[in-house]
Amino acid sequence: MFEYINNFGGNGVFILGDVHPFVGKNSLQLSWEILTRVKNLYHRLKPTEKRIVFLGQNIQLHESLLRLIPCCEVPLPSIEQIQDHLESYLLYLQESASEQEVTFTVSLTIEDKETLARAALGLTLEEISDFLRLTVKERLTSKGIVIDTTVIPLVVEYKTRLLAQMGIELGKSATIPFGGLDLLRDWLQRRSRLFSQEARSLNLPQPKGVLLAGPPGTGKSIVAKNIATILNLPLLQLDIASMLGSLVGESEGNVRRALKTAEAIAPCILWIDEVEKALSANGDTSGVSQRILGNILTFMSECTAGVFVVATCNDPTALPIEFKRKGRNTARLRENRWWNKEYFVLVNYTRTKTAKNVACT
């Protein structure tokens, strides 16, 4: 392949897919022969009008190629890009249906199309096209095809199935409110307006998240689901354990892709359950936990899209110090002497009398 590009007589751009495992950093498939050929070809093509483009996911080039090959990361589409794609693809489907003498009706207002685009946030444009194409085939009847507001919950189900393969689940908001924790509830209600479009247009700072600590069975999960109800935001549950892979760098790449998906869906709630099991370095000799921790800390510090992180843990002493420092989470439940009865009921929604007005830092 490289010989063909080198001997090609004209000018052109050559697009190569899935080559990065052979030239990737710490990859088990790293080939020094291919790595050397890429470097030699780079210098040979530099004075010519021939260029090579590598395509792939989670590309981490070898150190010897970092300064030679520039990297460009394509983010997930925004809501405006999705709206434009929906308009063009629905028009394409309508023209295809007319060629086959099939009635194609789109019964969506401008507001409905915006709602549909917002429901599709987190999907790629190709995945959105696949969803529309499958929906059209399923709705084909003798009377034609009708695209209306009933496709909105369908795209949410389609997105849920795809995100589940990445270790992200679209959770449901709680139907049972929690008792006690009055200060936490007031704190959330006062800051719920910071996630509105008006607050984002004014560049007002948004809260980063909250850490819920307590023994198992004290209602941390029900509080996390209620936070999504109070803030009126979609709930994403991140299962880090399902993202751990056997290949070097695979786990960190899966976590980064999941965090970028949450950023594309924002504003939303990102719920990381039992976070100490994923971030604790006890027994981890490969350093995967530390690298995942670094990815999460960087995301929490630099993300400005409106992702509210809700982390729950059973043993806060097992968490790294840098994850618990002041300012990392905007609100954090007291964790000193957490086995004491006073702190045990802090996140126990079934014991509201003794949990009344317990301080929330």
UniProtKB/TrEMBL annotation:
Q: State the source organism's domain of life.
A: Bacteria
Domain spans labelled AAA+ ATPase: 206-337
As one GO molecular function, the record gives: ATP binding
The keyword Transmembrane helix is annotated on this UniProt entry: no
Keywords of the record = ATP-binding, Nucleotide-binding
What InterPro entries does the record point to? AAA+_ATPase (IPR003593), AAA_domain_protein (IPR052381), ATPase_AAA_core (IPR003959), P-loop_NTPase (IPR027417)
A Pfam family assignment: AAA
Coiled-coil spans in chain:
none
- Give the SUPFAM superfamilies listed for this entry: P-loop containing nucleoside triphosphate hydrolases
Q: Which family does it belong to?
A: Belongs to the AAA ATPase family. Highly divergent.
Q: What is this protein called?
A: Uncharacterized AAA domain-containing protein ycf46
